[in-house]
Design a protein that fits this description.
The chain has 25 helices and 19 strands. The longest helix is centred in the middle third of the chain and has 18 residues. With 670 residues, it is an alpha+beta fold. Strand 6 and strand 7 form a beta hairpin. The strands form 6 sheets. Strands 1-3-2-4-5 form a 5-stranded mixed β-sheet, with helices on both faces. The chain has a 4-stranded mixed β-sheet with strand order 17-16-18-19, with helices on both faces. The protein has a 3-stranded antiparallel β-sheet with strand order 8-9-12. The termini are far apart. It is 48% helix and 10% strand.
Length: 670
């Protein structure tokens, strides 16, 4: 019989619905049950595309004997970290504090008051490499709970007190970052830059999307050739390596080596949304044909592989798939042997493909297989198409169909901009459809967001700060591209909630709302990881909305949130890249471009496109008919000599309107 997880919307939880473990979802009822029975809680946190989560599930949670022990001695709670990032963040902080490292699956033992007292990640089914087996851990926790309950309670209480004392105080009192802090951040990034292979630091190497966005904005504002070079070389290295899917477009999660050769193969919506936008912005700054190709291929990948029937975007593709023999193997869908190339292309073309894609007899991956790379940077369209068609006949990786509001906000921004830049109205349509889904399904009548949905059914978990911020960012971008003011209005609703529910003392931000479920600590993290932190994303959206509307409240909230960038940017720029990018926009104004003219007129379209293609950091763009009330920036903006015109303003000062696109380029440059 399925357990309680059968009623959930999370694909990760549903994967465990047939386990013999008597799983509970995160709920007050689960902790009440632990209190009633007098047993501890096992909290297991993972996500659908996590390789080691699947391994531990197969080894332990599908094992009848292990399940029986768990059911007798614990209340077991399973959490999808992508659905409950607040729960994940609080207990991951405890794990990292206690053990010095973290990761998933995360395994935490709690009291009935949700206080943690023992931690770990993956545990094997038998002792291995100095690690205790999962059964040994369970028996040890049971013994401690039975024989030393007071000691367990003391440990748990101390951990909770330590966590509670960690609230951040980086607010507006410290001031906003200025030229000096941004220059120091650039210098710190330069020190960590890998001049040989691009990117920052060593292996494993993650795509530095937010840091690259900062570098591009810094170049746009200052003309720093060094900043542009680091951004361009990093993007070229990633695009030519194995982390990028050379056949189908889109990026894997990270590279296990510093050369970008072998990836961890799961493909996440958020990575691809962020990287699509970065490559589009690189093209905008340089005209790089490679950047254009990668941006479009990545956009097409998201639409082709991740779009759901409801019009939103699924969270991820798994790293593993059937290798054709019944084994589930990481990278099986993507890696090639020379023999497989011959089978798909014939001897002559296979030889050409092996040279083009760096496929060797020894292999660059496992068991003689190679991950396709493109060292030359120049693809052969015919070979790509034939290999893509051959690969399509392989068993496909699984897909996590969960629609996450924040990540869809990132995808909306990326697709809207790519569609506008590269004159692909179909991509703008896909962005609009995803935005419609978020409004229709994820947003209630009070503009409160639900974090997830699946198959058109909304999940029970409340949106967190990154959901409000990233969805607002997507709506603001869509407003600029489409000229539909309703998206500005929806962004305003969300950002008003940010100010009302998420802003704390001194301008600091929290990841959960004031009225959210109370955990052992209210999570608060300003640092970027795989995605912009909710803190930095909120600062950016608040700043853009203030530029659109003149709202002092939103500008003040944005500046208050940027105090943390002043503190952390010079010391840890890789981990606050989006905050640095927002700080670049603040230093530049940001500028505002209002284009007025008849809808559909060629001259209006040209001025609008010129404004969208400007590189001024954080530039906000409004377009509409004369006298339009949809955008505050369009008010009192008449036509010039009866024709379309563009008005450019910055810091409460406006230039004379222009009807000439080349003059608009000058006004929006330095």
């Amino acid at each position: 019989m399925p357990n309680r997880l059968a009623h959930e919307t999370s694909p990760y939880l549903l994967q465990h619905a047939d386990n013999p473990v008597d799983w509970w979802p995160w709920s007050g009822d689960a902790f009440d049950e632990a209190r009633r029975r007098g047993v501890p809680v096992l909290l297991s946190v993972g996500y659908s595309s996590c390789h080691w989560c699947h391994v531990m599930a197969h080894e332990s949670f599908e094992d009848e004997e292990t399940a029986a022990y768990l059911n007798a001695h614990f209340v077991s709670i399973k959490v999808d970290r992508e659905e409950r990032p607040d729960v994940d963040a609080v207990y991951m902080e405890a794990v990292q504090s206690a053990t010095g490292h973290g990761g998933w699956p995360m395994t935490v033992f709690l009291t009935a008051d949700a206080e943690p007292f023992y931690f770990g990640t993956y545990f094997p089914p038998e002792p291995r490499h100095g690690m205790a087996s999962f059964r040994q851990v369970l028996e040890g926790v049971t013994a401690a709970w039975s024989d030393r309950r007071d000691e367990v309670g003391e440990v748990a209480g101390k951990i909770v007190r330590d966590l509670a004392g960690r609230s951040l105080a980086f607010g507006g009192d410290g001031g906003v970052p200025g030229e000096e802090e941004l220059a120091q951040a650039l210098l710190a990034l330069t020190r960590e830059y890998d001049e040989r292979h691009g990117g920052f630091g060593g292996a494993p190497k993650f795509p530095p999307s937010m840091a690259v966005e900062f570098l591009l904005r810094h170049y746009a504002r200052t003309g720093s050739d060094g900043a542009l070079q680091m951004a361009a070389d990093t993007c070229a290295a990633m695009a030519r390596g194995g982390m990028y899917d050379q056949l189908g477009g889109g990026f894997a999660r990270y590279s296990v080596d510093r050369e970008w050769t072998v990836p961890h193969f799961e493909k996440m919506l958020y990575d691809n949304a962020l990287l699509c936008r970065v490559y589009a912005h690189l093209w905008r700054a340089t005209g790089s044909e490679e950047a254009r190709r990668v941006a479009l291929e990545t956009a097409d990948f998201m639409v082709r592989e991740l779009r759901t029937e409801e019009g939103g975007f699924a969270s991820a593709l798994d790293a593993d798939s059937d290798d054709g023999t019944g084994r589930h193997v990481e990278g099986a869908f993507y890696a090639w042997t020379p023999g497989q190339l011959v089978e798909a292309l014939g001897e002559k073309d296979a030889e050409r493909a092996a040279e083009l894609f760096a496929v060797t007899e020894q292999g660059t991956f496992e068991e003689g297989a190679s991950v396709l790379q493109l060292p030359s940077g120049e693809a052969d369209a015919e070979l790509k198409e034939r290999l893509f068609e051959a690969r399509a006949r392989r068993p496909r990786p699984g897909r996590d169909d969960k629609v996450v509001a924040a990540w869809n906000g990132l995808a909306i921004a990326a697709l809207a901009e790519a569609g506008a830049y590269f004159e692909r109205p179909d991509l703008v349509e896909r962005a609009t459809e995803a935005a419609d889904l978020l409004v229709r399904l994820h947003m209630d009548e009070a503009a409160r967001l639900s974090r997830t949905s699946k198959d058109g059914r909304v999940g029970a978990n409340a949106g967190v700060l990154e959901d409000y911020a990233d969805v607002a960012e997507g709506f603001l971008t869509l407003a600029a591209v489409t000229g539909e003011g309703v998206w500005l209005e929806f962004a305003g609703f969300l950002l008003d909630i940010v100010i009302d529910q998420f802003v704390g003392e001194g301008g600091a931000l929290y990841d959960t709302a004031d009225d959210a479920e109370r955990l052992i600590r209210r999570p608060q993290d300003p640092t970027d990881s795989a995605t912009p932190s909710g803190w930095s994303a909120a600062a950016g959206a608040l700043l853009s909305y203030a530029a659109h509307t003149g709202s002092e409240a939103h500008r003040t909230a944005a500046e208050g949130a940027l105090g943390v960038v002043r503190a952390l940017g010079p010391r840890a720029p890789r981990f606050i890249g989006w905050g640095l990018a927002v700080a670049e926009a603040l230093l530049d104004g940001p500028r505002e471009a209002a284009v007025v003219g008849p809808d559909g007129a060629a001259a209006t379209r040209e001025l609008h496109r010129t404004a969208l293609l400007a590189t001024a950091p954080g530039l906000v763009v409004a377009v509409g008919e004369p006298g339009s009330e949809e955008f505050p920036l369009l008010r009192d903006r008449p036509l010039v000599d009866g024709g379309p015109a563009a008005y450019v303003c910055r810091n409460f000062t406006c230039d004379a309107p222009t009807t000439d696109p080349s003059d608009l380029v000058r006004k929006l440059g330095n």
